[in-house]
Amino acid sequence: MKEFDSFDMKIKNSLEQKAEAVMLPQHLREKIVIDIQSRSSHRSTGLKLVYEKMREMPKKYETILRMKKIATATLSLMIAATIVSLTVSEKARVWAKESIESAWIAVKGENGTYSLQQVPVEKAPNYDTTVTGTVMIGTKTELDKKNPLETELGITLPQSLPDNWKIQDKAVSKTQGNEQIKNQLEGIYIKGTNQLNLSVSKDEWWKNTSFHFTQENRVKEIKIGDITTTWYHTASPRYGYVELKDGGGGYNTNKPVGVDVVDGLSWEVNGVNYILWEYHDQTKQGELTPELAAKMAESVMEANK
Amino acid sequence: MGELDEVAIIRHCQEKDMNAFNVLYERYAMKTVRTAFLITGHRQLAEDIVQETFVQCYTSIHKLKDPEKFQTWLYKILVRNCWHFLSREKKKYRTDFLDDAMEEQLKDPINLYERIDTSDEYLELHRAIDQLSDPLREVIVLFYFNDLSIKEISIVLDCFENTVKTRLHKARKKLEKDIGATFRSEQKAGEINEGVRFI
């Protein structure tokens, strides 16, 4: 027990008096829960699974694992690149304060390589999507079962995709955009150290994310029977993650550390929207090509006839 | 859940039990918000810091080997976030919280010693604490407001106990000087005021 003299008591009372002016902010708990869930959803894009898979790999992959860990922990393909929108999560708002007048974008050069550029914030894409409430399935028992959202959507996520891709996990998440909360089902497929995601929803949520799957990024259409699929190609800044020692968490860097390329194929069947996508560092070769994606889309359609 | 002791609640949290996490939040949210406010001097920043702190708490609590040290561990995260957020917002949020009336009182050249015995003493102290450097203000807040021991503060700040003692001593001397408390006796460097004993 501390024994205070009168001056110490004055200091103590002064601090307590000053602190009493501050009340617990309303909705702080909700913000925290949303933040937790949104960060958890980053991992639900399957890269956590890649880490786990890569841990079984020989030592030579450790560097890749470390780099992916740093990149992925902060890569927010689902959270509107935070610095470009002041309307997303509180965390993004704090980041936005850092350079409130500017934002980063990836710009394609003549040689096909993307470079990072800082532009006035009004010239950067403005997306307002926060992914919340992601629940990973994970266990083999659960993976074999039909998830309730699959039932609700009237679809089945195939256990495998052409070219030896196997399902490693399913994820169910809510995407909160400008309008309303939407449910999204995601299948995470792995082949070696690579990963693909198959996202399914009744809403085209990805058009509001920093995937930039917008009209401007459409490359071509591919017909599969009567169904028209669309191939997209885009790029996004990737932010670094600084981890504090002793498990105290970490924080994202304000300046991007690289560029990720995102490719995807989207289609719609009976009111349900699908998008098969992959993202990777632009310095590496991706697995998903338009032809392979079309083949995979066809197998998904077949599985759901 | 509320009837369980804190160790049990933390164990549940480590298993990602959100109900248990809510209990921890209820117990610590107010104190952490006020601590962050006292350290940084800004309400909105304090809210952002506490939000980040609890998120990190949830995601990293499984690494906490000794649940009985939870409070110290939480404050350690909190203070680090204060450093991080402050370093980016340096001086941007260091505002003077005193309103015009208070400002006028402080400019009044009436004998400072007499003022100590009036309600202005807290205003003086508010201002003086606010004027302390970040490291000194942190130890003052953790020691007097959060009632942490020297050892606990050294863990939170990741420094030696002697460093904590030195900072406390410096901070108190500066506060005394700033509010003109002439009734305190001279202290040798590094010694803690004899009126305060540490267990």
Topology:
The complex is a heterodimer of chains A (305) and B (199).
Chain A: H1 6-19, H2 28-44, H3 47-55, H4 62-74, H5 90-98, E1 102-108, E2 114-120, E3 130-136, H6 140-144, H7 148-153, E4 160-161, E5 165-176, E6 181-191, E7 194-201, E8 218-224, E9 227-243, E10 250-269, E11 272-281, H8 290-303
Antiparallel strand pairs in A: 1-2, 3-5, 4-5, 5-6, 6-7, 7-11, 8-9, 9-10, 10-11
Helix pairs in contact in A: 3-4
Chain B: H1 6-14, H2 18-40, H3 43-60, H4 70-88, H5 100-107, H6 112-116, H7 120-131, H8 134-145, H9 150-157, H10 161-179
Helix pairs in contact in B: 1-2, 2-3, 2-4, 2-8, 3-4, 4-9, 7-10, 8-10, 9-10
Characterization of this structure:
The complex is a heterodimer of chains A (305) and B (199). Chain A has 305 residues and is an alpha+beta fold. Chain A has helices at residues 6-19, 28-44, 47-55, 62-74, 90-98, 140-144, 148-153, 290-303, and strands at residues 102-108, 114-120, 130-136, 160-161, 165-176, 181-191, 194-201, 218-224, 227-243, 250-269, 272-281. Helix content of chain A is 29%, strand content 35%. In chain A, helix 3 (47-55) packs antiparallel against helix 4 (62-74). Chain A is extended, with a radius of gyration of 22 Å. Residues 43-62, 79-88, 91-100, 127-135 and 176-181 of chain A have low confidence and may be disordered. Residues 91-118 and 182-199 of chain B have low confidence and may be disordered. Chain B has ten helices and no strands. Chain B has helices at residues 6-14, 18-40, 43-60, 70-88, 100-107, 112-116, 120-131, 134-145, 150-157, 161-179. At the A-B interface, helix 1, helix 2 and helix 5 of A face helix 2, helix 3, helix 4, helix 7 and helix 8 of B.
